[in-house]
Batch of 4 targets.
Target 1
Amino acid sequence: MEENKMPSYAPIIVKLFQTVIYDDDRKTWQELLSFQHQIRNYFATIGIQLHLNDQDGFAF
């Protein structure tokens, strides 16, 4: 039986469901930027859009 592996960006997705992510949370912000494409693709499959404002430093 094949084991389902959780993607490394899954905690960021969970956090986005819970709250706004700000750039002052440097570790999470950098991970969000690094996995932005994969996170956008995941949200698109469930009909949600990622709003990321890099200039003002927040995402939801």
Target 2
Amino acid sequence: MALRPLKLRNKTVSIPIVQGGMGVGISWERLAGAIAREGAVGV
């Protein structure tokens, strides 16, 4: 199954996966940055 790109206004994310977390230190900038470098969305 192929995943379609995620489009948000004028931005397109090639890998339609959004990473995020709830809690202390779950998604600090290092994890979010690593996800973003792979083409997904790190928040």
Target 3
Amino acid sequence: NPILFRGVGMVADPDNPLVL
């Protein structure tokens, strides 16, 4: 789940630029 990584701020899903 990219949502979980959004809080960490790591590049987990290239489909989610918000992760950066």
Target 4
Amino acid sequence: MSRKPDNHECRCGSRSHDRGNRTDRYREPGPAKRVAEAMRLMRKRDPQTAEDGFHLLRPHAAEHVDELLHEFEQERADQGLRCWLLELIGEARSPAALPTLAAQSHSEDESLRFWAIHGLELLDTREARTALYRARANGTIP
């Protein structure tokens, strides 16, 4: 007689390696490990895996802005990863990100400059608007 598995058992009847009914590709780690796991995935060569890492962190960017700022400052080799980190920093809409966003709004790298300006626009504080005004006045942005 074969038993039909319930929601708590896998097909073999074991509960020790049950994956439940999850359809997503990765289990979301707890808040303490979220940034480390997302960074690990974003550094993968497989584009879908890297994208999964970015989207793992995106809804939680505001909770991890300090860690994102640290990762951005530490990353030097991978320009694409730096752009993703700057995008996440901007999405956080945190005043703590203002110095980094303002500095990157003058970057020679057009992609970094784009995400810095976008982040300043999202932040939408008096200081962020002042940074945007200065960048426009200096001719850094149109």
